[in-house]
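Margin note from the TA: students keep mixing up input and output lines. Inputs are the sequences; the output is the structure of the whole complex. Example:
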Amino acid sequence: MHAMQLSERGRLYNYTIVYRSYPGITVPFISAIVDLDGGGTVKGNLIDVEPDPARLSFDMPVRMVFRGAEIASAEGSGHVAHFFVPDGEAVHD
Amino acid sequence: MWPTFSFLTEKPFMTDVYVVGIDMIRFGRYEQTVVQLAAQAALLAFDDCRIGIHDVQALYSGNIGETMTGQRTLQLIGQTGIPVVNCSNACATGATAFREGWIAIKAGLYDVVLCIGVEKMAAGMIVKKKTGNEPLPPEGLIGSETMPAVFSMVGLEHTRQYGTTLEQFARVSVKNHHHSTFNPKSMYRKETPLEEVLGSEMIAYPNTKLMCSVNVDGAAAAVLMSEEAARKRGLLGRAARIRASALASDAWSPRNQVMQDVNTVSRQAAQSAFEMAGLGPDELDLVELHDCFATAEILHYENLGLCADGDGGRLIDSGDTALGGRIPVNVSGGLLSKGHPLGATGIANIYEITTHLRGEAGARQVDGARIGLTHVVGLGSACAVHILEKT
Protein backbone atom coordinates (compact mmCIF):
# COMPACT_ATOMS: atom_id res chain seq x y z
CA MET A 1 0.00 0.00 0.00
CA HIS A 2 1.11 3.54 -0.63
CA ALA A 3 -0.42 6.93 0.13
CA MET A 4 -2.06 8.82 -2.73
CA GLN A 5 -3.03 12.47 -2.85
CA LEU A 6 -6.47 12.92 -4.43
CA SER A 7 -7.54 16.21 -5.91
CA GLU A 8 -9.95 18.40 -3.95
CA ARG A 9 -11.50 19.54 -7.19
CA GLY A 10 -13.81 17.57 -9.39
CA ARG A 11 -17.07 17.47 -11.31
CA LEU A 12 -20.58 16.47 -10.34
CA TYR A 13 -21.12 13.07 -11.93
CA ASN A 14 -24.54 12.40 -10.45
CA TYR A 15 -26.87 13.48 -7.66
CA THR A 16 -30.28 13.23 -6.12
CA ILE A 17 -32.14 15.69 -3.93
CA VAL A 18 -33.36 13.93 -0.81
CA TYR A 19 -36.69 15.18 0.53
CA ARG A 20 -37.51 12.21 2.74
CA SER A 21 -34.78 10.59 4.78
CA TYR A 22 -34.49 8.66 8.02
CA PRO A 23 -36.23 10.12 11.09
CA GLY A 24 -34.36 13.14 12.48
CA ILE A 25 -32.34 13.93 9.34
CA THR A 26 -32.69 17.49 8.06
CA VAL A 27 -34.06 17.67 4.51
CA PRO A 28 -33.85 18.57 1.74
CA PHE A 29 -30.20 17.97 0.92
CA ILE A 30 -28.21 17.08 -2.15
CA SER A 31 -26.53 13.67 -2.19
CA ALA A 32 -23.75 13.96 -4.75
CA ILE A 33 -21.33 11.67 -6.56
CA VAL A 34 -18.20 13.55 -7.60
CA ASP A 35 -15.49 12.40 -9.98
CA LEU A 36 -12.28 14.01 -8.74
CA ASP A 37 -9.90 15.52 -11.25
CA GLY A 38 -7.19 12.96 -11.93
CA GLY A 39 -9.21 10.00 -10.67
CA GLY A 40 -11.28 8.75 -7.77
CA THR A 41 -14.98 9.05 -7.06
CA VAL A 42 -16.34 10.36 -3.75
CA LYS A 43 -19.86 10.61 -2.35
CA GLY A 44 -20.94 13.48 -0.14
CA ASN A 45 -23.40 16.31 0.42
CA LEU A 46 -23.27 19.20 -2.01
CA ILE A 47 -23.85 22.37 0.01
CA ASP A 48 -23.89 26.15 -0.54
CA VAL A 49 -26.27 25.70 -3.47
CA GLU A 50 -30.04 25.54 -3.43
CA PRO A 51 -31.37 21.97 -3.58
CA ASP A 52 -33.17 22.60 -6.85
CA PRO A 53 -32.60 20.63 -10.08
CA ALA A 54 -32.56 23.93 -11.98
CA ARG A 55 -29.44 24.98 -10.06
CA LEU A 56 -27.56 21.74 -10.68
CA SER A 57 -26.01 20.40 -13.82
CA PHE A 58 -24.08 17.28 -14.59
CA ASP A 59 -20.33 17.91 -14.70
CA MET A 60 -20.57 21.24 -12.87
CA PRO A 61 -17.23 21.95 -11.15
CA VAL A 62 -17.18 21.37 -7.40
CA ARG A 63 -14.58 21.52 -4.65
CA MET A 64 -14.22 19.42 -1.52
CA VAL A 65 -14.27 21.30 1.79
CA PHE A 66 -14.09 20.15 5.39
CA ARG A 67 -16.55 21.52 7.90
CA GLY A 68 -17.99 20.65 11.28
CA ALA A 69 -20.27 17.64 10.91
CA GLU A 70 -22.90 19.33 13.06
CA ILE A 71 -24.07 21.33 10.04
CA ALA A 72 -25.57 18.10 8.63
CA SER A 73 -25.89 15.70 11.55
CA ALA A 74 -27.49 16.19 14.96
CA GLU A 75 -24.84 13.87 16.43
CA GLY A 76 -22.01 15.50 14.49
CA SER A 77 -20.66 17.86 17.12
CA GLY A 78 -16.92 17.33 17.63
CA HIS A 79 -16.50 15.66 14.20
CA VAL A 80 -15.32 17.02 10.89
CA ALA A 81 -16.76 15.80 7.60
CA HIS A 82 -16.14 16.39 3.91
CA PHE A 83 -18.66 18.29 1.81
CA PHE A 84 -18.74 19.60 -1.73
CA VAL A 85 -19.38 23.19 -2.76
CA PRO A 86 -19.76 24.72 -6.23
CA ASP A 87 -16.33 25.68 -7.55
CA GLY A 88 -16.80 28.91 -9.46
CA GLU A 89 -13.13 29.78 -9.85
CA ALA A 90 -11.96 26.39 -11.01
CA VAL A 91 -10.20 26.22 -14.33
CA HIS A 92 -10.84 22.93 -16.08
CA ASP A 93 -9.70 21.83 -19.45
CA MET B 1 -24.93 -49.32 -11.78
CA TRP B 2 -22.31 -46.92 -13.14
CA PRO B 3 -23.51 -43.98 -15.17
CA THR B 4 -22.85 -44.32 -18.87
CA PHE B 5 -21.47 -40.83 -19.50
CA SER B 6 -17.92 -39.58 -19.45
CA PHE B 7 -17.27 -36.49 -17.36
CA LEU B 8 -15.03 -35.14 -20.07
CA THR B 9 -17.19 -35.53 -23.13
CA GLU B 10 -20.81 -35.76 -22.09
CA LYS B 11 -23.15 -34.14 -19.68
CA PRO B 12 -25.12 -36.38 -17.37
CA PHE B 13 -28.84 -36.51 -17.97
CA MET B 14 -30.50 -33.60 -16.25
CA THR B 15 -34.24 -33.45 -15.99
CA ASP B 16 -36.22 -30.40 -16.94
CA VAL B 17 -37.81 -28.76 -13.90
CA TYR B 18 -41.42 -27.61 -13.87
CA VAL B 19 -43.50 -25.24 -11.81
CA VAL B 20 -46.57 -27.40 -11.21
CA GLY B 21 -48.27 -25.56 -8.35
CA ILE B 22 -47.95 -21.88 -7.56
CA ASP B 23 -49.96 -19.21 -5.81
CA MET B 24 -49.71 -16.07 -3.67
CA ILE B 25 -51.85 -14.36 -1.11
CA ARG B 26 -53.11 -10.92 -2.05
CA PHE B 27 -50.43 -8.44 -1.02
CA GLY B 28 -51.55 -6.07 1.73
CA ARG B 29 -51.36 -5.57 5.47
CA TYR B 30 -52.09 -8.54 7.67
CA GLU B 31 -52.50 -9.24 11.37
CA GLN B 32 -51.09 -12.77 10.93
CA THR B 33 -47.45 -13.64 11.59
CA VAL B 34 -44.81 -14.16 8.91
CA VAL B 35 -45.08 -17.93 9.14
CA GLN B 36 -48.86 -17.86 9.08
CA LEU B 37 -48.68 -15.97 5.80
CA ALA B 38 -46.05 -18.41 4.49
CA ALA B 39 -48.19 -21.39 5.47
CA GLN B 40 -51.19 -19.89 3.71
CA ALA B 41 -49.23 -19.47 0.47
CA ALA B 42 -47.82 -23.00 0.73
CA LEU B 43 -51.27 -24.54 1.15
CA LEU B 44 -52.56 -22.54 -1.82
CA ALA B 45 -49.67 -23.88 -3.93
CA PHE B 46 -50.43 -27.44 -2.76
CA ASP B 47 -54.10 -26.99 -3.73
CA ASP B 48 -53.02 -25.72 -7.12
CA CYS B 49 -51.36 -29.07 -7.93
CA ARG B 50 -53.36 -31.35 -5.59
CA ILE B 51 -50.46 -32.51 -3.43
CA GLY B 52 -49.82 -32.36 0.31
CA ILE B 53 -46.86 -31.82 2.62
CA HIS B 54 -46.11 -35.58 2.63
CA ASP B 55 -45.23 -35.35 -1.07
CA VAL B 56 -42.61 -32.65 -0.46
CA GLN B 57 -38.97 -33.77 -0.18
CA ALA B 58 -37.31 -30.42 0.66
CA LEU B 59 -38.25 -26.83 1.48
CA TYR B 60 -36.43 -23.69 0.35
CA SER B 61 -37.72 -20.73 2.30
CA GLY B 62 -37.00 -17.09 1.44
CA ASN B 63 -37.42 -14.42 4.12
CA ILE B 64 -35.28 -11.50 5.26
CA GLY B 65 -36.83 -10.25 8.48
CA GLU B 66 -36.81 -13.40 10.62
CA THR B 67 -34.79 -16.55 11.21
CA MET B 68 -35.63 -20.24 10.72
CA THR B 69 -38.76 -19.17 8.88
CA GLY B 70 -38.93 -22.40 6.86
CA GLN B 71 -38.87 -24.70 9.89
CA ARG B 72 -41.43 -22.57 11.71
CA THR B 73 -43.66 -22.69 8.63
CA LEU B 74 -43.50 -26.47 8.71
CA GLN B 75 -44.64 -26.36 12.34
CA LEU B 76 -47.91 -25.05 10.90
CA ILE B 77 -48.28 -27.26 7.81
CA GLY B 78 -46.51 -30.49 8.79
CA GLN B 79 -43.18 -31.29 10.46
CA THR B 80 -42.18 -34.16 8.22
CA GLY B 81 -38.45 -33.89 8.95
CA ILE B 82 -37.46 -32.85 5.41
CA PRO B 83 -34.36 -30.72 4.81
CA VAL B 84 -35.05 -26.98 5.05
CA VAL B 85 -32.83 -24.24 3.65
CA ASN B 86 -33.50 -20.63 4.69
CA CYS B 87 -32.42 -18.06 2.10
CA SER B 88 -31.77 -14.36 2.52
CA ASN B 89 -30.56 -12.40 -0.51
CA ALA B 90 -32.10 -8.92 -0.25
CA CYS B 91 -34.82 -8.34 -2.87
CA ALA B 92 -33.68 -11.48 -4.72
CA THR B 93 -34.53 -13.63 -1.68
CA GLY B 94 -37.64 -15.35 -3.03
CA ALA B 95 -36.06 -15.96 -6.42
CA THR B 96 -32.96 -17.38 -4.70
CA ALA B 97 -35.09 -19.85 -2.71
CA PHE B 98 -36.86 -20.82 -5.93
CA ARG B 99 -33.53 -21.29 -7.67
CA GLU B 100 -32.18 -23.49 -4.86
CA GLY B 101 -35.20 -25.73 -5.38
CA TRP B 102 -34.54 -25.82 -9.11
CA ILE B 103 -30.88 -26.71 -8.52
CA ALA B 104 -31.81 -29.58 -6.18
CA ILE B 105 -34.12 -31.17 -8.74
CA LYS B 106 -31.62 -30.55 -11.55
CA ALA B 107 -29.00 -32.29 -9.43
CA GLY B 108 -31.27 -35.32 -9.18
CA LEU B 109 -31.55 -35.15 -5.39
CA TYR B 110 -35.32 -34.67 -5.24
CA ASP B 111 -38.41 -34.88 -7.48
CA VAL B 112 -40.75 -32.62 -5.52
CA VAL B 113 -39.74 -29.48 -3.62
CA LEU B 114 -41.54 -26.52 -2.10
CA CYS B 115 -40.23 -22.95 -2.40
CA ILE B 116 -41.72 -20.13 -0.33
CA GLY B 117 -41.09 -16.40 -0.24
CA VAL B 118 -42.59 -14.32 2.56
CA GLU B 119 -42.18 -10.94 4.23
CA LYS B 120 -43.90 -8.62 6.64
CA MET B 121 -42.88 -5.00 6.22
CA ALA B 122 -43.29 -1.87 8.27
CA ALA B 123 -45.18 0.82 6.37
CA GLY B 124 -43.10 3.67 5.00
CA MET B 125 -39.42 3.91 4.19
CA ILE B 126 -36.97 1.12 4.96
CA VAL B 127 -34.65 2.43 7.69
CA LYS B 128 -31.28 0.72 7.97
CA LYS B 129 -30.60 -0.77 11.39
CA LYS B 130 -27.63 0.68 13.26
CA THR B 131 -24.69 -1.71 13.26
CA GLY B 132 -23.47 -0.53 16.66
CA ASN B 133 -19.93 0.41 15.73
CA GLU B 134 -20.56 3.37 13.45
CA PRO B 135 -19.17 6.50 15.12
CA LEU B 136 -21.60 8.67 13.16
CA PRO B 137 -24.44 7.40 10.97
CA PRO B 138 -23.64 8.46 7.38
CA GLU B 139 -27.23 9.20 6.32
CA GLY B 140 -27.65 12.90 5.62
CA LEU B 141 -23.99 13.57 6.37
CA ILE B 142 -22.22 11.71 3.58
CA GLY B 143 -25.04 11.87 1.06
CA SER B 144 -27.94 9.45 1.29
CA GLU B 145 -28.28 5.70 1.38
CA THR B 146 -32.09 5.48 1.40
CA MET B 147 -33.60 3.22 -1.22
CA PRO B 148 -35.40 6.12 -2.94
CA ALA B 149 -32.11 8.05 -3.08
CA VAL B 150 -30.22 5.08 -4.51
CA PHE B 151 -32.75 4.50 -7.27
CA SER B 152 -33.20 8.17 -8.00
CA MET B 153 -29.49 8.40 -8.65
CA VAL B 154 -29.65 5.34 -10.83
CA GLY B 155 -32.37 7.11 -12.82
CA LEU B 156 -30.52 10.41 -13.07
CA GLU B 157 -27.48 8.57 -14.39
CA HIS B 158 -29.73 7.49 -17.26
CA THR B 159 -30.85 11.09 -17.69
CA ARG B 160 -27.21 12.14 -17.77
CA GLN B 161 -26.41 9.57 -20.46
CA TYR B 162 -29.55 9.70 -22.59
CA GLY B 163 -31.65 12.69 -21.56
CA THR B 164 -34.45 10.60 -20.05
CA THR B 165 -37.12 12.92 -18.62
CA LEU B 166 -39.02 13.05 -15.35
CA GLU B 167 -42.24 12.49 -17.34
CA GLN B 168 -40.84 9.30 -18.89
CA PHE B 169 -39.96 7.90 -15.47
CA ALA B 170 -43.39 8.90 -14.17
CA ARG B 171 -45.14 7.15 -17.06
CA VAL B 172 -43.84 3.82 -15.73
CA SER B 173 -45.85 4.43 -12.59
CA VAL B 174 -48.97 5.41 -14.57
CA LYS B 175 -48.70 2.18 -16.59
CA ASN B 176 -48.11 -0.18 -13.68
CA HIS B 177 -50.85 1.33 -11.54
CA HIS B 178 -53.17 0.96 -14.53
CA HIS B 179 -52.20 -2.72 -14.89
CA SER B 180 -52.92 -3.36 -11.23
CA THR B 181 -56.58 -2.42 -11.68
CA PHE B 182 -56.94 -5.79 -13.45
CA ASN B 183 -55.17 -7.80 -10.73
CA PRO B 184 -57.26 -8.92 -7.74
CA LYS B 185 -54.07 -9.86 -5.85
CA SER B 186 -52.56 -6.38 -6.05
CA MET B 187 -52.30 -4.22 -2.91
CA TYR B 188 -53.49 -1.10 -4.76
CA ARG B 189 -55.90 -1.12 -7.70
CA LYS B 190 -56.17 2.56 -8.54
CA GLU B 191 -55.48 4.56 -11.67
CA THR B 192 -52.86 7.26 -11.17
CA PRO B 193 -52.85 9.78 -14.04
CA LEU B 194 -49.54 11.43 -14.97
CA GLU B 195 -50.40 14.73 -13.22
CA GLU B 196 -51.14 12.82 -10.01
CA VAL B 197 -47.84 10.91 -10.18
CA LEU B 198 -45.85 14.08 -10.86
CA GLY B 199 -47.79 16.04 -8.25
CA SER B 200 -47.39 13.59 -5.38
CA GLU B 201 -44.84 14.22 -2.64
CA MET B 202 -41.24 14.33 -3.89
CA ILE B 203 -39.27 11.67 -1.99
CA ALA B 204 -35.91 11.83 -3.75
CA TYR B 205 -35.70 13.71 -7.03
CA PRO B 206 -36.91 12.49 -9.52
CA ASN B 207 -38.97 9.80 -7.71
CA THR B 208 -42.22 11.02 -6.20
CA LYS B 209 -44.16 8.96 -3.68
CA LEU B 210 -46.23 7.29 -6.41
CA MET B 211 -42.98 6.28 -8.14
CA CYS B 212 -41.84 4.29 -5.08
CA SER B 213 -42.91 0.69 -4.53
CA VAL B 214 -45.20 -0.14 -1.66
CA ASN B 215 -43.78 -1.85 1.44
CA VAL B 216 -46.45 -4.43 2.29
CA ASP B 217 -46.93 -7.94 3.66
CA GLY B 218 -47.11 -10.90 1.33
CA ALA B 219 -46.30 -14.51 0.64
CA ALA B 220 -45.99 -16.67 -2.46
CA ALA B 221 -45.13 -20.34 -2.87
CA ALA B 222 -44.27 -22.73 -5.68
CA VAL B 223 -44.14 -26.52 -5.98
CA LEU B 224 -41.43 -27.67 -8.38
CA MET B 225 -41.20 -31.15 -9.85
CA SER B 226 -38.95 -33.14 -12.14
CA GLU B 227 -40.43 -34.00 -15.52
CA GLU B 228 -41.06 -37.59 -14.51
CA ALA B 229 -42.78 -36.68 -11.25
CA ALA B 230 -44.98 -34.11 -12.99
CA ARG B 231 -45.90 -36.54 -15.80
CA LYS B 232 -46.73 -39.35 -13.37
CA ARG B 233 -49.16 -37.10 -11.55
CA GLY B 234 -50.68 -35.77 -14.77
CA LEU B 235 -49.53 -32.23 -13.97
CA LEU B 236 -47.63 -31.31 -17.15
CA GLY B 237 -50.67 -29.72 -18.79
CA ARG B 238 -50.74 -26.65 -16.51
CA ALA B 239 -47.03 -26.73 -15.72
CA ALA B 240 -44.46 -24.10 -16.70
CA ARG B 241 -41.07 -25.38 -17.80
CA ILE B 242 -38.13 -23.52 -16.26
CA ARG B 243 -36.01 -22.76 -19.29
CA ALA B 244 -33.42 -20.77 -17.35
CA SER B 245 -32.49 -19.87 -13.81
CA ALA B 246 -29.64 -17.39 -13.41
CA LEU B 247 -28.15 -15.60 -10.44
CA ALA B 248 -25.37 -13.01 -10.43
CA SER B 249 -23.56 -10.85 -7.89
CA ASP B 250 -22.20 -7.43 -8.71
CA ALA B 251 -18.96 -7.41 -10.62
CA TRP B 252 -16.68 -4.46 -9.99
CA SER B 253 -17.61 -1.32 -11.88
CA PRO B 254 -15.94 2.10 -11.66
CA ARG B 255 -18.23 3.86 -9.17
CA ASN B 256 -20.10 1.05 -7.44
CA GLN B 257 -18.40 1.53 -4.08
CA VAL B 258 -20.15 4.88 -3.70
CA MET B 259 -23.06 4.57 -6.13
CA GLN B 260 -25.09 1.37 -6.44
CA ASP B 261 -24.92 -0.21 -9.87
CA VAL B 262 -27.99 -2.32 -10.67
CA ASN B 263 -27.15 -2.44 -14.37
CA THR B 264 -24.02 -4.58 -14.51
CA VAL B 265 -25.48 -7.28 -12.26
CA SER B 266 -28.76 -7.34 -14.18
CA ARG B 267 -27.01 -7.62 -17.51
CA GLN B 268 -24.89 -10.47 -16.27
CA ALA B 269 -27.87 -12.46 -14.95
CA ALA B 270 -29.93 -11.74 -18.07
CA GLN B 271 -27.14 -12.83 -20.38
CA SER B 272 -26.66 -16.08 -18.44
CA ALA B 273 -30.40 -16.75 -18.55
CA PHE B 274 -30.72 -16.13 -22.29
CA GLU B 275 -27.72 -18.37 -22.93
CA MET B 276 -29.14 -21.14 -20.77
CA ALA B 277 -32.56 -20.92 -22.43
CA GLY B 278 -31.04 -20.64 -25.89
CA LEU B 279 -33.27 -17.75 -26.81
CA GLY B 280 -33.22 -13.98 -26.99
CA PRO B 281 -35.31 -11.09 -25.71
CA ASP B 282 -37.28 -10.94 -28.98
CA GLU B 283 -38.85 -14.28 -28.14
CA LEU B 284 -40.37 -13.14 -24.84
CA ASP B 285 -44.12 -12.57 -24.61
CA LEU B 286 -44.13 -10.79 -21.25
CA VAL B 287 -41.76 -9.66 -18.52
CA GLU B 288 -42.09 -9.04 -14.78
CA LEU B 289 -39.09 -6.91 -13.83
CA HIS B 290 -37.91 -5.20 -10.66
CA ASP B 291 -39.73 -1.85 -10.66
CA CYS B 292 -38.89 -1.05 -7.04
CA PHE B 293 -38.85 2.58 -8.23
CA ALA B 294 -40.23 3.96 -11.48
CA THR B 295 -36.74 5.02 -12.55
CA ALA B 296 -35.50 1.43 -12.35
CA GLU B 297 -37.93 0.03 -14.91
CA ILE B 298 -36.52 2.21 -17.70
CA LEU B 299 -32.97 0.94 -17.06
CA HIS B 300 -34.07 -2.66 -16.89
CA TYR B 301 -35.73 -2.42 -20.32
CA GLU B 302 -32.19 -1.99 -21.60
CA ASN B 303 -30.53 -4.36 -19.14
CA LEU B 304 -32.87 -7.15 -20.25
CA GLY B 305 -32.47 -6.35 -23.94
CA LEU B 306 -36.09 -5.27 -24.51
CA CYS B 307 -34.71 -2.26 -26.39
CA ALA B 308 -31.34 -0.82 -27.38
CA ASP B 309 -29.26 1.11 -24.86
CA GLY B 310 -30.62 4.64 -24.54
CA ASP B 311 -34.05 3.75 -25.91
CA GLY B 312 -35.72 3.00 -22.54
CA GLY B 313 -37.45 6.39 -22.38
CA ARG B 314 -38.79 6.00 -25.89
CA LEU B 315 -39.96 2.46 -25.09
CA ILE B 316 -42.23 3.64 -22.27
CA ASP B 317 -43.51 6.50 -24.46
CA SER B 318 -44.36 4.07 -27.29
CA GLY B 319 -46.80 2.07 -25.17
CA ASP B 320 -45.06 -1.15 -26.22
CA THR B 321 -44.60 -2.24 -22.59
CA ALA B 322 -48.26 -1.76 -21.66
CA LEU B 323 -50.82 -4.55 -21.73
CA GLY B 324 -51.67 -5.08 -25.41
CA GLY B 325 -48.29 -3.74 -26.53
CA ARG B 326 -45.35 -5.54 -28.16
CA ILE B 327 -43.76 -6.70 -24.90
CA PRO B 328 -45.97 -6.09 -21.85
CA VAL B 329 -43.98 -5.39 -18.69
CA ASN B 330 -45.32 -5.74 -15.15
CA VAL B 331 -48.92 -6.51 -16.06
CA SER B 332 -49.36 -7.61 -12.44
CA GLY B 333 -49.08 -3.96 -11.40
CA GLY B 334 -45.46 -4.48 -10.49
CA LEU B 335 -43.81 -3.64 -7.22
CA LEU B 336 -45.09 -0.09 -7.64
CA SER B 337 -48.74 -1.03 -7.18
CA LYS B 338 -49.05 -4.77 -6.45
CA GLY B 339 -46.56 -4.19 -3.61
CA HIS B 340 -43.08 -5.31 -2.66
CA PRO B 341 -42.84 -7.67 0.33
CA LEU B 342 -39.09 -8.21 -0.18
CA GLY B 343 -38.82 -11.97 0.33
CA ALA B 344 -42.06 -12.77 -1.50
CA THR B 345 -41.48 -10.68 -4.62
CA GLY B 346 -39.23 -13.15 -6.44
CA ILE B 347 -41.83 -15.93 -6.32
CA ALA B 348 -44.84 -13.67 -6.81
CA ASN B 349 -43.47 -12.57 -10.18
CA ILE B 350 -43.03 -16.22 -11.20
CA TYR B 351 -46.66 -16.74 -10.17
CA GLU B 352 -47.63 -13.91 -12.51
CA ILE B 353 -45.76 -15.35 -15.49
CA THR B 354 -47.04 -18.89 -14.85
CA THR B 355 -50.63 -17.62 -14.63
CA HIS B 356 -50.27 -16.03 -18.09
CA LEU B 357 -48.64 -19.13 -19.59
CA ARG B 358 -51.62 -21.11 -18.29
CA GLY B 359 -54.02 -18.62 -19.87
CA GLU B 360 -55.61 -18.01 -16.47
CA ALA B 361 -54.83 -14.32 -15.97
CA GLY B 362 -58.36 -13.09 -16.66
CA ALA B 363 -58.73 -9.41 -17.58
CA ARG B 364 -54.96 -8.84 -17.71
CA GLN B 365 -54.15 -11.95 -19.77
CA VAL B 366 -51.37 -11.45 -22.32
CA ASP B 367 -52.83 -13.17 -25.37
CA GLY B 368 -50.99 -16.26 -26.52
CA ALA B 369 -48.26 -15.96 -23.88
CA ARG B 370 -45.72 -18.77 -24.38
CA ILE B 371 -42.49 -17.49 -22.84
CA GLY B 372 -42.03 -15.09 -19.95
CA LEU B 373 -39.14 -13.68 -17.96
CA THR B 374 -38.85 -12.59 -14.33
CA HIS B 375 -36.15 -10.33 -12.92
CA VAL B 376 -35.35 -9.17 -9.38
CA VAL B 377 -32.40 -7.18 -8.03
CA GLY B 378 -31.39 -6.99 -4.40
CA LEU B 379 -28.95 -4.27 -3.46
CA GLY B 380 -25.60 -5.39 -2.36
CA SER B 381 -26.08 -6.96 -4.98
CA ALA B 382 -27.93 -10.04 -6.18
CA CYS B 383 -29.84 -10.38 -9.42
CA ALA B 384 -31.98 -13.38 -10.36
CA VAL B 385 -33.54 -13.96 -13.78
CA HIS B 386 -35.88 -16.83 -14.63
CA ILE B 387 -37.31 -17.75 -18.02
CA LEU B 388 -40.43 -19.87 -18.09
CA GLU B 389 -42.17 -21.58 -20.99
CA LYS B 390 -45.67 -22.91 -21.51
CA THR B 391 -45.75 -26.69 -21.81
